[in-house]
Amino acid sequence: MSWMKTTVSSLITLYVSVPVLLFVFPWIVEHIIFAHLLTFPFFVDLSRPEDLLNNTYNFYLSTEEDISVGVWHTLPASQWEQAVGKSPEWYQRTLGDGSPVIIYLHGNGGNRAMKHRVELMKIMSAADYHVLSLDYRGFGDSTGEPSEAGLTTDALYLYQWVKQQSRDSFVCLWGHSLGSGVATNVAVKLQEQGSAPDAVILQGAFTNMEETIFNHPITKLYLFLPGFESLMWNILGRNNVVFANDENVKTLTSPFLILHAEDDNIIPYHMGLQLYKTLLQTQEKHSTEAPVEMISYRAELGFSHNRIYLDPNLSNVVKGFLRKLRLHH
Ligand SMILES: *[C@@H]1O[C@H](CO)[C@@H](O)[C@H](O)[C@H]1NC(C)=O
Ligand SMILES: *[C@@H]1O[C@H](CO)[C@@H](O)[C@H](O)[C@H]1NC(C)=O
């Protein structure tokens, strides 16, 4: 039975080493929140989106001094034929053609070439929307180091850059997972400047970063260890990463669409539901007519955290939502 002893003692060592590592290297937590160093998919040249997506143009924006951020612009499908061989300026001008523009803000791991992100871009392009998908600073081929303020600055810059070209077209922020925190931070800043975003779509969104970490299945394995909880609070306080969606939605009066799967294994369903309920209260408090909707996906569908793009009705849901905005505009 000596193999069993070895296995058991390795497992115990592994279990105990996590809090010790966190104590000695608290920056590990930040590297989990911003998992930008996981550069998957590995063998993709981000400057060649044509390997994964048709009619997509890759470009870089300088969102701040010394920060360059990689962006993909995928055209509405109806424009694909015209796009062959066109210049960067031509792509930029199409943003003002009247088709809605979606700014896609991705989650915490990997880059803009990940499969579930690319699939969503294909669906939105087929629905005849422009999609702009960026890698925040430190992610993909973008320069710099991630931070909450930095990610928010990058996304805000892209939104304002798009608005300069898009004239009267709708520009919608779409935040998935960590991107939901970026989306509401940007929306708060825009609203403070008197130009609230036309619409916000949140997919697999959390209430705030602390609750997300304490709800994580791995954290739960440790919470009963004496001192672990205060260690985590200490690290979180020092890292200064908040992403307070729950506070942000108390003031935001833009139209909102919440998408959440009941079997989401990373961000529990109740968090999306809580944001939805708060948004309804905000809507009532400010007596706005802006639509606030939530679509829940039954657990049997197995969409979990990343696979809502598998819903065959997704583009109808988004179209229905954006059509209502036009009526309120
Ligand atoms: C591009 O479009 C063509 C024709 O519709 C299709 O066959 C091809 O698979 C698409 N390429 C990618 C990378 O999606
Ligand atoms: C698809 O979405 C539309 C718009 O939200 C909705 O009216 C319709 O009932 C949905 N269809 C299915 C099959 O879920």
CATH architecture: 3-Layer(aba) Sandwich
Ligand names: 2-acetamido-2-deoxy-beta-D-glucopyranose
Number of helices: 13
Strand order of the largest sheet: 1-2-4-3-5-6-7-8
Structural class: alpha/beta
What low-confidence regions span 5 or more consecutive residues with pLDDT below 50?
none
In which range does the helix fraction lie? 40-55%
Could you name the CATH class?
A: Alpha Beta
Rounded to an integer, what's the Rg over CA atoms? 21 Å
Largest sheet: number of strands, sense, barrel closure? 8 strands, mixed
Encode the helix/strand succession as letters.
Answer: HHEEHHEHEHEHEHHHHEHEH
Mean pLDDT: 90
Task: Kindly state the number of beta strands.
Answer: 8
CATH topology: Rossmann fold
CATH superfamily heading:
Alpha/Beta hydrolase fold, catalytic domain
Protein name: Abhydrolase domain containing 12B
GO cellular component, one term: endoplasmic reticulum membrane
GO molecular function: monoacylglycerol lipase activity; phosphatidylcholine lysophospholipase activity
Keywords: Membrane, Transmembrane, Transmembrane helix
